[in-house]
Amino acid sequence: MKKLKLGAGLAMVLATTLLLGACMSSNNQAKDGDTITVGSKNFTENVVLAHMLALLIEDKTDIKVNRQINLGGSNVVWSALKNNEIQLYPEYTGTIVANYYQQETGSSEDTLAKSRELVEGDQLKFLEPYGINNTYTLAVTKETADKHNLKTFSDLAKVSKDMVLGVEFEFLDRDDGYPGIQNLYGMDFKEKKGMDHGIMYRSIEAGETDVTNAYATDAQIQVHDLVILQDDKEFFPPYDASTLIRQDTLEQYPELEEVLNQLSGVLKEEDMQKLNAQVDVDALLEEDVARNYLVEKGLIDG
Fold this sequence. Notes:
The protein is α/β, with parallel strands linked by helices.
């Protein structure tokens, strides 16, 4: 009888051990039916990147992904993340430091380090950069670049008195726009024109203007065959992109960090210009564009 009781007790201990092990395991990997939500802002690039994150998670894990795409501007998505309405989304270092925490940016490396330090206090984590810096810049046609041997903002400043600047209305007046550039680089254009975003690209293509402002990953850079000039004095803040994710989500699914970091260093500005153009110009679906790119890079199965 004692042997039977001992056996039953041993069985109970083993069962308890197995149950505890299963519970611990469930905290460290996805279970069938687990779901997380990927969000995005309301512009093409961020939507494409969000689909890339969702597709990677679906391909590499058992986690089901809910997509909350086109949520709105930066502050809307930021609030959704902090409120746990979404668990991750693509974000930019300059936006984190300057917009969310109202602090000074620096070099790409400094701003990345500061971004990580700041979000850690809110129990968030900024993963490895994708490789794109979607910063403001100035652009000219290839003909203009070749004619004046333009490679940098400093090169442009030397010949600006003979050129017409065509930029967005807001860019003309903001301290972090033309007035700041003018002060730092000593640019003095023959004429300065404010216009809508779409019109400024048509104007430079038609030869009505010589220089325009742009985002480094803008689809229109390739559509209009423009040359981006180097901000050699680093006037514009860096906007290096990566995944911003809740720390409690990583604690629940630690495999996500390695999965999402497969995008690290993969994207280039020229790649993103093409991907944006496929949506904005060729009218392809953002998710299809994201999937095709990941398949092409061998990151997910076709």
